[in-house]
UniProtKB/TrEMBL annotation:
Residues 8-119, 129-241 form the Talin IBS2B domain. GO terms for molecular function: actin filament binding; integrin binding. SUPFAM superfamilies: alpha-catenin/vinculin-like. The gene is Tln2_0. It comes from Scytalopus superciliaris. One of its GO terms (cellular component) is plasma membrane. This is TLN2 protein.
Length: 244
């Protein structure tokens, strides 16, 4: 029942995405209508996904987290898409903002597809761990793209905060190795959830620290490079766990 509702609402959201993209080239009224419609649809989708997560029961909290993370990714992608649509409104077809809009729409569709795959995998215990890991790998890749962009973080933080956040990577690495050895679905799901948070926190702290007022250009470039290398190394580890 929940799966059908999620599927139906997700399809409606994909249609809203198309309207948002086409709305950038039309009137402000049509754009506003498309934004409002997508906001209503994402609210409905979040509700049915939460009901679906609740139906799993409290004895499987890690899988519930996987589902909630999937809808959070879709919501974030929609927010980014609406922002990109506003930026591209009334601009010519070859304007850079139009390429950003197309990129945001692609991420949106990718995340909706990922949500549907996750919902399907939840019904099959044998594939839950694999799907959770795949979704985390995709999420980390998207976070790395944001990290590597020229966008300056809204706030700066201390280098100490960045160092503190690397401890999460150490813990997640140990968990990933253990999951690769045990190959138990619950261990793999827990690894996926922990890895997602650990890498996202590290990337955020690293970028914020690299823009600290006391940090020079050379040190900033090195910090950003090492943040990227750490993430790529961790992605390789997760790919190995997936292979196992």
């Amino acid at each position: 029942c929940y799966r059908e509702n999620i599927l139906k609402t997700a399809k409606a959201l994909v249609e809203d995405t198309k309207l948002l993209v086409s709305g950038a080239a039309s009137s402000q009224d049509k754009l506003a209508q498309a934004a409002q419609s997508s906001a209503n649809t994402i609210t409905q989708l979040a509700e049915v996904v939460k009901l679906g997560a609740a139906s799993l029961g409290s004895d499987d909290p890690e899988t519930q987290v996987v589902l909630i993370n999937a809808i959070k990714d879709v919501a974030k992608a929609l927010s980014d898409l609406i922002g990109a649509t506003k930026g591209a409104a009334s601009k010519p077809a070859d304007d850079p903002s139009m390429y950003q809009l197309k990129g945001a729409a692609k991420v949106m569709v990718t995340n909706v597809t990922s949500l549907l795959k996750t919902v399907k995998a939840v019904e099959d215990e044998a594939t839950r761990g694999t799907r959770a890991l795949e979704a985390t790998i995709e999420y980390i890749k998207q976070e790395l793209t944001v990290f590597q962009s020229s966008e300056v973080p809204e706030k700066a933080s201390s280098p100490e905060e960045s160092i503190r956040m690397t401890k999460g990577i150490t813990m997640a690495t140990a968990k990933a190795v253990a999951a690769g050895n045990s190959c138990r679905q619950e261990d793999v799901i827990a690894t996926a959830n922990l890895s997602r948070k650990a890498v996202a926190d590290m990337l955020t702290a690293c970028k914020q620290a690299s823009y600290h007022p006391d940090v020079g250009e050379e040190v900033r470039e090195r910090a950003l490079r090492f943040g990227t290398e750490c993430t790529l190394g961790y992605l390789e580890l997760l790919e190995h766990v997936l292979l196992v």
